[in-house]
Structures are given as C-alpha cells and as structure tokens.
Sequence to fold (254 residues):
Amino acid sequence: MQVPDTNFIYTETTGDKSNPCFIAGEERQDSVIYIPLKSFNPILPLNKPGHIAGSLIYTLVFLIIFAFLRIRSKGLFSLMLSVLIKRKKYELILNEGIPSNLGYYILALFLSFSILATGIAYFSFHAFYLKPIIYIFCFLILYHICTLCTVRLLAWTFNIRNVKEEVIVNIWTYNILIGLFISPLVLSLFFVKLFALPLLAKIITICLVMFYLVKLIRWFEILFTYRVSILYMILYLCALEVIPLLILYKYVAL
Fold:
C-alpha cells in the first residue's frame, strides 16, 4: 500500500457547528487535513507588493554602491582584508591616508550597517519594513561613533597614541567587513522560498558568531601586546562589545 505523500497536519478542536469537526452534535477531538506535497508551494514572506518593490530597489542600490566602491576606492577592500588577516597591516591604511579616502570608508560603513539592519529587521518581522530598518541602522551608526569617541578619550587620558590608531583602524575594518561578508546571504532572503529561510538564518548566525570571535581574539591580542590592564580590558569589552549586543537583542526581542 502506497503511503500518502503529505507534509502538513492541521488539528482543530472547537465546538462551533460551522466547524467541519462538529458532527451530529458531537465534537471530533482530532481532525487531520492532508495536503499533498506537490501542491504545497511556499511563498515569499512578503505580505504586500510594496515590500517586494522595496526589496528589489534596495538590492539594486546596494549592488550599484558596492560596484562604485570597488571601482573608485583604490583597493579599500583589499587593504581591509589585509588588516583582517594580519594584525600589523593596519599601518598600510594609516600610511595610505584615512582623510583622503574618508568618504569611501563612510559609504562602505553605511553599506555594511544597512545590510545588518535589513537582515535583523527581516528575521524579526518577515518583511521589508522600512521603519525598523532605519531604527536599527541609526543604532549601529551611533554605536560606531560612540566607540570611536570612547577610544579617543581613553587614548588621550592614558597617553597611548599607538593603541588608539590600531584600535580605530580595526573598528572601521570589522564594522565594514561584517556586513559585506554576509551581504549575499541577506540579499538572497528576498528571493528564496520560505522553507529555505531557516537554513539561511543558521548560516548567517554561524558566520556572525565566527566573525565576532575573530574580532574578540584580535582585541585581546592588541590589548595584551600593549600591556593594557586586565581590568580596563574587561571594562572595555563589556561596555563597547557586549552591552550593545544585548541592547540590540532586547530591541529585536520586543
């Protein structure tokens, strides 16, 4: 006997007479509706046509800006990859001159944070909602600015200029690359079937965790090299790394 090709089971236990489970004054406690697998066609989790248009527009704008940076930024991404792989390569960015390319760095940072904000909002609301994306994006920009200001203040207070320069370069590097690395996965969320979203979510989460672990290892390496106090190290990592993540998680969980 051939087993029915099914993949969905639905149960209903209400006592309403309009309920098909209600027969001759008695309620059937269990009703099962089988949907053939071939007729089950998941749709995109976009509830309105405007969301589809918004996701398409964002994808095109992202690709255009990314292509512009690749062509005009004079090896910006290759320099940052060098910093990511080898710690001492941060001097390449300092020697190349940050002020002359500051506009490209800012544009790349906006591109990275927009991807992060879009991905977080998409997994939270299953749609391309502009308002939460803007809120998360503004939070990430504020976090970046506050981190830079805190590092500069600490460097001025304790007169550790070399630490400041290396830490600032690494902050820019990791904040820019973290979004660009997962950008293909986030953009694909708009166009895949619904059943593929959990797998993409797991892959994105694994990538973010691995990237964050690499970042923490680099921070410890820098701070130990310059013999920063363990107490200051813990305070820095908690205040500028852990607490912002908890705040962002709290906002998304609401």
In short: Confidence is low (pLDDT under 50) at residues 1-49.
